[in-house]
Amino acid sequence: xxxxxxxxxxxxxATVFNVLLYIISFLLLLLMYSRIIAFxxxxxxxxxxxxxxxxxxxxxxxxxxxxLKVVLKKFDVDKYFAPLFGARRPPRKNP
Length: 95
Prior knowledge:
The protein is mostly helical. Helices cover 75% and strands 0% of the residues. It has 3 helices and no strands. The longest helix has 34 residues, at 3-36.
């Protein structure tokens, strides 16, 4: 496989992983919320659902960023992946 194929597969896999992470965290939070909903006043129950919709976004973002840092440390990015927005330019030399 070439670098462009590796890049495409990595982006596709990372996107699928991020969506699955969101779905799993949403379902776990919804399960926990269903266990404690009887103890929450009715006026505050709607806020719980709003939090359950927003919190998995934050969870998936944080976990994704942490795992991405680990992967980027482990593999040489320039060796396996092509740049997304053109080639990297060499640093300019000061006169």
